[in-house]
Amino acid sequence: MQFAESTGLSSPGLSSAGKPPRRYLWTDAFAVCNFLDLYHQTGDEQYRRLALSLVDQVHAALGRHRADDTRTGWISGLDEQEGNLHPTIRGLRIGKKMNERKSSEPFDEEMEWDRDGQYYHYLTKWMHALNRVSRVTMDAIFNRWAMELAKTAHARFTYAPLRGRNKRMY
């Protein structure tokens, strides 16, 4: 419950520190699974609701371009209605403090750790969380979102080195 308060999940619009909600894909994926386990262990519906609210918040925040980005809307480029139906179809940002490095910016190894973007292992953790939600709610939409994310991640993080060879990950 402290996580829900401190990150702005339980009090809509503000965290316990009075700041807007801040989403971070890795910890949010763990939190979804933890809320679902708490629901399973206790039968307390508030944990199920928190898991579903967290999924909604993650998609609304990390499925869109950052506020400090010149681009706007869904990462997928879909309009609002379609973006809401397919929030993971082109991936999810991880939620780091700094925006992605522009191609015109020089590479700085130290700063890269603080930059937003998409990390394969974060995306797979979110796919797992969505699958868990689907199993608990018996709603296939969460599995569809996980599969759409999987297809995008696989397409973007793999390559075929030579014709006839197996794909490899970057």
Write the layout of secondary structure elements.
Layout lengths: L1 H5 L18 H18 L2 H18 L17 H6 L23 H4 L7 H18 L3 H17 E2 L8 E2 L1
Antiparallel strand pairs: 1-2
Report on this structure:
This protein has 170 residues and is an all-alpha fold. 51% of the residues lie in helices and 2% in strands. The protein has 7 helices and 2 strands, in the order αααααααββ. It has helices spanning 2-6, 25-42, 45-62, 80-85, 109-112, 120-137, 141-157, and strands at residues 158-159, 168-169. The protein has a two-stranded antiparallel sheet. α2 runs antiparallel to α3 (45-62) and α6 (120-137) packs antiparallel against α7 (141-157). The longest helix is centred in the N-terminal third of the chain and has 18 residues, at 25-42. The protein is globular. It starts with a helix and ends with a strand. The mean pLDDT is 92.
Please tag this protein with its features.
170 residues, mainly alpha, 7 helices
